[in-house]
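In response to the reviewer comment on reproducibility (Comment 2.3), we provide here a single inverse folding case reported in full, input and output, so that an independent group could reproduce the run without further information from us. The structure tokens appear first.
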């Protein structure tokens, strides 16, 4: 066959390659579009599931922390209707409640009285009429004291009895804020008093005023103050069931203040780690689903750091598998087209060659 004969035959060969290449490129573009759409769909589904879990978690965390407030308001209402309570009446009120069932994480309810330091001796003498062993434990030189005069269950909170909690800035600040506003207040993160493991927690306080009075200014509230009822709360016990409930979908950490201040209160991934801990936890930087929320409770800002678990993270393997399968199918289709076109070209070349042979035989 001459060079002149071969030149036209190269054109169908290039055309076959071009058609196969076009099919390959088209298949890869379709594969990319499908896998990208699938990836976006999975991410949107995971994000929606995460946001729903995060909203429910926020509501549950606030509900658990605020649960103690209902007990304090009930106790304050009892003082408002009955006047001052004797130690026996206070004990009966607490014992009538199911602390573990009604108030998760509340280790005890108590009463705090404001005492001028100049009146400390007479106050102690008055208290000893009911309890000869009563002693006030205080320090510093503050002009007034905030003394725990009742605490129940007494056996589990014995060392709090008679303590001047106003010695410590977080407790004093919360008490003074509650008295000034007439509202519930939460302390900064503290090592829960009486707790041998020094678990992180709070003291929630609520002022009670003289019966029949409704003071409207901070000065009037201070004058009408009878005392402050409070609840001692361990964060690990308040939030343990929340962590268990949401564990399949999200992990969370609760901080007192911003995360970068490292005042960790609770870590759902390590609920057994109960001692007071400083330092933000690491290990969530690779979590794709992450949200940080600021919660306001009793004048305090708490930070809720939430991360999606691997169970709801978008599955990267699905779009990757779809992409690989699409590329294989595209390559197979392109190869099949090339083979068909090449086979057709060869058949045409064979037919043309046979025709030329017949023509030469006829001329000869």
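Designed residues, in position order:
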């Amino acid at each position: 066959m001459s060079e002149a004969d071969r030149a036209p035959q190269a054109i169908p060969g290039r055309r076959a390659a071009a058609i196969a290449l076009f099919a390959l490129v088209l298949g890869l573009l379709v594969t990319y579009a499908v896998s990208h759409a699938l990836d976006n769909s999975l991410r949107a589904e995971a994000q929606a599931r995460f946001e729903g879990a995060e909203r429910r978690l926020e509501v549950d965390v606030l509900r658990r922390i605020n649960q103690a407030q209902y007990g304090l308001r009930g106790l304050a209402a009892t003082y408002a209707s009955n006047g001052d309570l004797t130690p026996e009446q206070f004990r009966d009120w607490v014992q009538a409640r199911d602390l573990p069932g009604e108030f998760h994480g509340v280790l005890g309810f108590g009463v705090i009285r404001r005492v001028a330091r100049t009146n400390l001796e007479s106050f102690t003498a008055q208290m000893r009429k009911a309890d000869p062993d009563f002693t006030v434990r205080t320090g510093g030189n503050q002009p007034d004291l905030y003394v725990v005069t009742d605490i129940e269950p007494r056996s589990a909170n014995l060392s709090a009895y008679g303590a001047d909690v106003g010695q410590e800035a977080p407790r004093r600040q919360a008490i003074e804020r509650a008295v000034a506003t007439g509202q519930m207040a939460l302390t900064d993160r503290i090592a829960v008093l009486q707790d041998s493991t020094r678990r992180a927690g709070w003291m929630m306080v609520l002022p009670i005023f003289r019966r029949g009075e409704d003071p409207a200014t901070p000065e009037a509230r201070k004058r009408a103050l009878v005392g402050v009822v409070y609840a001692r709360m361990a964060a690990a016990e308040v939030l343990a069931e929340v962590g268990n409930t949401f564990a399949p979908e999200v992990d969370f950490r609760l901080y007192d203040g911003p995360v970068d201040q490292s005042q960790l209160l609770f870590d759902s991934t390590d609920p057994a780690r109960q001692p007071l801990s400083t330092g933000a936890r690491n290990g969530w930087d690779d979590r794709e689903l992450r949200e940080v929320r600021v919660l306001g409770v009793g004048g305090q800002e708490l930070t809720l750091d939430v991360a999606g678990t691997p169970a709801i993270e978008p599955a990267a393997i699905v779009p990757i598998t779809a992409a690989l399968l699409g590329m294989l199918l595209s390559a197979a289709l392109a190869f099949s087209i090339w083979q068909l076109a090449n086979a057709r070209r060869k058949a045409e070349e064979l037919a043309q060659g046979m025709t030329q042979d017949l023509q030469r035989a006829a001329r000869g």
